Amino acid sequence: MKAFEHIIVETRGKVGVITLNRPKMLNALSFGVFGEIATAVDDLEANDSIGCIVLTGNEKAFAAGADIKEMQPKGFIEMFSNDFIAIRGDRVATCRKPTVAAVSGYALGGGCELAMMCDIIIASDTAKFGQPEITLGTIPGIGGTQRLTRAIGKSKAMDLCLTGRMMDAAEAERSGLVSRIVPSDKLMSEVMTIAEKIAEMSLPAAEMAKRAINRAFETPLSEGLQVERDLFRSTFALEDRLEGMAAFIEKRKPANKNR
Ligand code: CO8
Q: Among its keywords, does the record have Lipid metabolism (predicted)?
């Protein structure tokens, strides 16, 4: 396992866990942090024994946004000519394997955007989400205006992005941003249970399900349904599909081979 400066990467059975580790700065996301997360995703995606990736922070903060101290002196040309955000900043969203964000405390700005790159967001009851960039004279730059709007609709996305206010876990769940809220002290155990369950599934089937759902955000319904049908039919080439159905009929657990 590589040594990282700002994150901790572990494998726990079939689950890869990336923990943001800049506690004094509430896990502010510098370019270096984004780069390390991208490298960790590269590694965990290439690791055949990993079936699900969890991204988390600490109790006080998932991440309080991009690193404002690093960004403050930068100018337009430096930000424009460097396409880091598109190439490495979005790496969590392009991961083929299922990803789960375990969010406790602040998930603001780039932190909220990073959580939204994951497939599932599980929030502790202390979680606070927001896009406060407007209060800094800027706007979300790594998915906040797009993924948030798709997740919670125009009015609430406008409300958050234009006022910069935070929403608590209950509002985030009500709005569809997070899938479940769990007590703060149980966040990681609950998330690991979910991630382990996903990692037990056939990985190619999980990747196909993920791909099909993500197409819903990119295509008209008829195209999305076609993609789904094609991927569904593709599962009939999987040994895991044959085994999964046989196991059901024989009333036993399937032994997935990820093939
Ligand atoms: N960047 C840099 N440092 C930060 C950040 C941040 N985003 N957030 C907190 N810190 C630092 C503070 O400066 C402070 O450091 P120090 O002790 O040296 O003064 C330390 O973390 C603790 O923070 P606070 O004392 O402020 O803690 P509080 O509990 O009083 O407040 C808050 C917590 C409310 C979360 C507060 O820290 C805050 O408002 N933080 C900034 C939130 C914010 O505006 N986030 C959006 C940033 S912009 C963005 O994310 C754009 C993304 C676009 C993509 C970029 C790609 C690279």
A: yes
Q: Which residues of 37-48 are buried (b: 16+ CB within 10 A; e: fewer)?
A: bbbbbebbbeee
Ligand 1 atom nearest the C-alpha of 108 is 45
Question: Which one from 16, 89, 110, 111 is the annotated catalytic residue?
Answer: 110
Kindly give, in sequence order, each residue whose CB lies less than 8 Å from that of residue 196, ignoring residues fewer than 6 positions away: 13, 14, 15, 52
Kindly name the residue from 63, 64, 66, 115 that is annotated as catalytic: 66
The pLDDT tens digits for 92-144 are 999 999 999 999 999 999 999 999 999 999 999 999 999 999 999 999 999 99
The yes-or-no answer on residue 66 being catalytic is: yes
pLDDT, tens digit, 9 for 90 and up, residues 11-46: 999 999 999 999 999 999 999 999 999 999 999 999
250 has catalytic annotation: no
**Domains, the chain, ordered by start:** 7-199 (3.90.226.10), 202-250 (1.10.12.10)
pTM score: 0.97
